[in-house]
Amino acid sequence: MEIGLYQKQTTNLVMTQELRQAIYLLQYSTVDVCSYLEEQALENPLLELSEPARQKNDGIIRSTPSMSSDEKHAALENLSTEVYTLNHHLRSQLVGMNGLSQTTIQHLHYLIDSLREDGYLSDPIEHICTVLGIGEEAGERLLHLLQTLEPSGVGARCLGECIALQLKKHSDVHPLAAEMAFTEIKALAARKWKQLAKKFDVNIQEIQLIYDQIKQMDPRPGLAFYQEPTVYAVPDVYITEHSSEVIVYLNSDVLPSIRIQEEYKRLLEAQGETKQYAKQKGQHVDWLKKSLEQRQQTILRVTEVLANVQRDYLFSRDGSLKPLTLFDVAQELEIHESTVSRATAHKYAQTPKGLIELKTLFTANISKTNAALTNQSVKSWLKELINAEDKQKPLSDQKLVERLKQDKQISLSRRVIAKYRDELGILSSAKRKRYGERVLS
Fold first, then answer.
1. Each residue of 174-202: pLDDT tens digit?
2. Residue 367 domain-assigned (yes or no)
3. Among 335, 361, 387, where does a domain finish?
4. In whole angstroms, what is the distance from residue 264 CA to residue 282 CA?
């Protein structure tokens, strides 16, 4: 083996910091891009962000009506900031209860503070008793008192107890409903109805009735008081039709404009380290402008392909999605699939069908012989078949395979049918089966 020094010339792609950030910008949502620009403006004194200007082109307004900054603040001031929580609701009920000592009320307040947002007890009652310095019997009495409050089921330690507490407050349920919910909730959910009917010496129709009554209860009663912050989706693009032509344009009201601050431009004419620093920050501003423009153009080009392919779906009342994949769009635009994926991730379009995510316009072709056959159309047919089936003799996955082949001339495996059924949230035939006519409406 000869050892020596040799020269070799090769070419490879280096992932620079600028390239990495450009990729991140493309996959960021609009909100994330705005947050990123605000962070950059704090770090770069030359970077100035300004409100985007409304644009017109070919007589078509390319942006939506927007409010001034003062109008936005005025609108926000009119929003109610007071939130009525589960904690407030439970504490208010204690005010009207007579015969409670101050110590008992304080202990109940601690129990209320120990509840999760869904209404369940977050800590074991034994631990709570230790913290309060009381016996377990006293702790159980306090918990029982808490469980008498509204909403029904609050203060439960498990799902079975939560459902049982609610059933006990209903007089029109099966006598065994509360007991069975507390002790056999998993068996009921697993549809082990025959075993339960034998164990409790009742017929299977009664087990089915109990199952239906349990389904009407609320498994998370506390969430009725939980107000999750509203997150608004802002359209990145608009898809409209004008003179039988599909028009796609960017939402120019979303991203701020970028420029170099006038008062800092003199730094570019300075000398020494100051000039070098200003030059570096100025180049960063230029790079941001270029990256944002490239991001917007990529989103626009990808959306134009999506809109033209799915035109029938977007503009027709009964239109359906055509087969379209990331690869198809990438081939059309001569870009990489990953670029298409990033350009459609967390991006929204305002269309005649409302605000939709761009990702929803993709659907796979599942037949080599029928180009118009998509997984969405098969799922739609599956729902129709299952909705129309005899509930006492539901269609198995194999029967669904046979019906699709017979009615629609579609040949699919049982595994594919099971996959689509799961994606639709539809149970298997064994768990869809109904017994007799004693079913709650």
1. 999 999 999 999 999 888 999 999 999 99
2. no
3. 361
4. 10
